[in-house]
Amino acid sequence: MQRYRIQGLPESLAAAARATMRSPQYGHPAHVEVATGYGPCRLCLQTFTVGADQRLLFTYQPFTDPEALPAPGPVFIHSEPCARYDAAVLPEALRPLPLVVEGYGAGGGLLVQRRVGTAGFEPVLDEVLGRQAIHYAHLRNAEAGCFIARIDRELPPA
Fold it and tell me: For a Cys staple, 75 with which of 7, 13, 60, 128, CB 3.0–4.6 Å?
């Protein structure tokens, strides 16, 4: 079984979006609204309470590799500060959602895409990260196609 880290988007980007009401990467206007869907928040990786939680919508580019083709898209975060998720397990709030694991190689090229479905998250992630050419993975919504979180292998202690 692979050891890995699931991470919400960088806290600095979320703070900048909240402070400026603009996408920190593109300058597009951000928008606050009451949640009409489950989300999830791309920072804390918890789902929204529909009709109650205030969420901030802005454009986010999840690729950090300068060779990767840009793939900006809309993301939601809580409009009020929340804690960035960074852990070695999938948050329980994400398990019932329709998920896809995408594996990327050097230069940010998409090498494999697997729906989680009934197979369960861990076996799908192990299969994707088990490929030597995969450098990292993205977790996406299988219905909307939008980015949820980045997943990196966790190297064993030296």
Answer: 60
